[in-house]
Model the fold of this input.
Amino acid sequence: MTDAVRVRGLRKHYQGSTAVDGVDLDIAEGEIFALLGPNGAGKTTTVEILEGFRKRDAGEVRVLGEDPQRASRRWRYGIGLVLQSASDMADMTVAETVRHFARYYPDPRPADEVIDLVGLTAKAGAKVRTLSGGQRRRVDVAIGVIGRPRLLFLDEPTTGFDPEARRQFWALIRLLSEQDATTILLTTHYLDEAETLADRVGVIAAGRILAVDTPAELGGRASAEAEVSWLEDGTHRTLRTAEPTAAVRELADRLGPEIPHLAVRRPSLEDIYLDLIGSPQ
Done:
């Protein structure tokens, strides 16, 4: 499988401070990749370098086969951006806004098709300023995909969304990935969002990539010990074990088939993430 993004030894310094410290990263074509990390981890700087908006100090970077630092205008047409604080054209309608941005590309998708894709056909004639936060984000996505990008950058796309709006947005991102095989690089602070959407996740802290894997396998999560808890003789008890099924069977033999307050828990993605970055849980 061809890589949409290939990074080796990426470094960036600001006034004596190291923001990115030897990052290596591969993202396959058609993959949804989530980059996770605390504030100040080097996440934003890394993504801005990949987008071609910031120069690196050292390292090799190839995005869609070109160096973003020297890339052509044709390369830029293959990149779509949905920024965290995207500006909008409040007094234009949804249709006018999408058509306006379509003019920047040599072969844009039809505006009506894109508006339908993001679920805003009923709002095509509405002014952007009258839309809800979730609907405005859909306009941002429409602008991001109007040029038929091969690679889409999503920066904190659902910040401030209510649960229903977040799930609707997730469905839209899955549709984009499945329909067009668009490669998507997602940055988010929502671990459930990463787990739901991403084929793989990477964790960055202090400018270094700490781990890259599927959400289920990250940091040895799949093979990590489970926590079995239950109530016995009026006392809540807990056991950590690599064989929770055997432990539950043993409890059932001793306490009967209905084990009081039985719970079996494996580490969540959040548990693994916090462990990787060294944050107290």
Notes: Residues 225-265 form one domain. The chain has a mean pLDDT of 91. The radius of gyration is 22 Å. The longest strand covers residues 3-14.
